[in-house]
What does this fold into?
Amino acid sequence: MTDLHIQKVLKKPDVVGRMVMWAVELSKFDIKYEPRGPIKGQIFADFVVELSSRTAQNAKDDFRWVLSVDGSSNQLGSGVGVILEGPNGVLIEQSQRFTFKASNNQAEYNALIISILLAKEMGAKVLMAKSDLLLVTGQVTGEFQAKDPHMTAYLEYVQELRRSFVLFEVVHVPRE
It folds into this structure.
């Protein structure tokens, strides 16, 4: 039961694209559209209280997305590799080669930023990022200071991105 007008959308003769596909798929089932009807005030208030009290608790219960990042740089160029592991066996692997020169630290920061953006796009709320570069993980966790202006700019952007998550953790993983 819903108060959304999905029946009107799916029964329109001029539906295009994905909506046609969904209309065909859903037509196989005997679906009856009924309006939800009025919701009593106290029930709605109880629902809102229950939902808001669970939000902080659910943040810890949410599935933790795990991110493994690596950036590298040499005389021929630089690039990044990212592996994002999500719920239900979701595994996203991505690699990018940069057309610009970057130090190893910059490549590692770029890997972290690209992977955080990917996790955010996938809807992750709880994220653990693993990196093998101690400098980057130390700066993000606050153990080290960023003295270079380029590193400071990268760090500020990562700090801004981390606000998109309920829980965000960066872990140093030794190269071995």
Summary: The helical segments are 6-11, 18-27, 41-61, 104-121, 134-141, 149-162. Residues 6-58 form one domain. The chain has two domains: 6-58, 64-172. The radius of gyration is 23 Å.
